[in-house]
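During the second year of the project, the team shifted from modelling isolated chains to modelling whole assemblies. The rationale, set out in the original proposal, was that interfaces cannot be judged from single-chain predictions alone. As a representative example for this report, we include one of the complexes processed in the last quarter. Its constituent sequences, exactly as entered into the pipeline, are reproduced here:
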Amino acid sequence: MKTRATAMAPASVANVAVGFDLLGFSVAAAGDEVTVERTSKPGVEIGDVTGVVTQVPKDSAKNTATAGLVRLAHDLDLKFGFRVSIKKGIPLGSGMGGSAASAVAAIVAANAVLDKPLTEADMLSYSLIGEAQASGSYHADNVAPSFKGGLTIARVRSIDDRPRVELVSLPAIPETYTVLVHPQLILETKTARGVLKADIHLKSHVEQAANLAGFIAACYRQDFDLLKRSFADVVIEPQRAHLIPGFHDVKDSAMKAGSLGCSISGAGPSVFAWVRGRELAEAVEKAMIGAFARAGLESKSWVSSLTDAPAAKVIA
Amino acid sequence: MKTRATAMAPASVANVAVGFDLLGFSVAAAGDEVTVERTSKPGVEIGDVTGVVTQVPKDSAKNTATAGLVRLAHDLDLKFGFRVSIKKGIPLGSGMGGSAASAVAAIVAANAVLDKPLTEADMLSYSLIGEAQASGSYHADNVAPSFKGGLTIARVRSIDDRPRVELVSLPAIPETYTVLVHPQLILETKTARGVLKADIHLKSHVEQAANLAGFIAACYRQDFDLLKRSFADVVIEPQRAHLIPGFHDVKDSAMKAGSLGCSISGAGPSVFAWVRGRELAEAVEKAMIGAFARAGLESKSWVSSLTDAPAAKVIA
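Output from the structure prediction step:
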């Protein structure tokens, strides 16, 4: 039996323009790696923290990678403990789902050293408990795609005092590529959530619902025209755009270069675009980097295939 | 060449719980028939009006069946006119899409007597202009399914000063039956729209979006469980339920009898349910009629297959 395992969980893009707190997809860009080792003493302790982020909470009940394990150990009344090492590949406050990736990687690694494996539903539930330490609330639009891979609809329901994720995988249209651009800027999720008004116009709701419906139908119909017409966020993006210097120029540049749609990745400041074909995606990537540069921001970027978008997995 | 044609357009259920102003499906229950005859004198005149509604506007620019024809004649600069007879099969203020059916049937009949047939896009556009006489605004969730048949996503965009319908047909899950129950009560669309607040909570928007996303994915996946879990209106139904005596009892009765979901048909007062299988649908129908009876309302009802839901057509 394994007493030590390492898992990787990928970065992810949440919201996806039309699905605030609902839609997300994984990205073969960066990822977080978590190593979980069984210890004889019950409890969850945090070991090494390395990579692009090292300043993380040392209290295991407050750390996104370990809070889910604390709850898991409690629920299963485990007689052993976990030592958890974290290697962050996803920058803090980047809008690339780093908190979710740490939470997911920890649960997937822990699962590999349990006597009896967890169900997928339990793994998602405990990952959500971990991720909520960072975001302050339960929403699964990063956790679900980071765990499952690909493009997902994910909603959270509370059942028996535990958050449960209802996950539906959506088909990605073949030839769709993601461009993800991360400007060198930190934007806390809590800040980006804080700017949102509590209410929206019914008219905006109807327009956004039309976009969401068209977007989902387009995925099933493999209809790039419908996807492009539906790819617009009239609810969240207008409220957050000002938090990202140069956002409108970045988006315009992506659209002019031929992208299907472009919006804020999760809570930002990263911006993503979907593009048909790799070559065009690389042109869009250049255009977006150029626009951030005009706003005085250096950025890092990735182009990856949506159809091959990775799931979390045990890597050692 | 035909100089006289009659077309039938079916009743339809709009909103469909999760898709206010967006989703709709046609129902093989009632329908409106419109006969259009070419006249040598330009202009649109209203002839006989028969059937379950006879009190309709006599001004052809204000009548739902003829307003689209007035605009069509103007746009095409027609050198002939139309005489229009209307046979209403759909009760007034029933929430069964009667205005849309008259508008659609008129355009489909007129199209059959034109020298050059209209495009589908034009037929939808002129139908919408007709229907707007009754509802006061452009929304295509009755016009689209009444014209096209089946279950549709329909949004309206204004292009070149004319409303355009963007229509996407959704696959109905085989074995799905519609129960449509019309209590003997008139509820004007304008009244039912008048009770709606201009704003909704962002939280409700997210929940409704999750329902809509699950609903559409369920149609493509043929997943009755997901459909049932997603079949809930947290935005519109709670604001309109009080306009329909006995609504909560009708809905509870439908759900207890085994329906997949139950909500207000369009602006009401009709209520619809989706049910898996015809036999169960008939049990749900009885339960709903019984509940309306307890509220002191007689009702008329129909059970029909969603997979065979009819489109408008020329019948003579």
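The CA atoms of residues 170 and 311 of chain A lie 14 Å apart. The longest helix of chain A spans residues 202-221.
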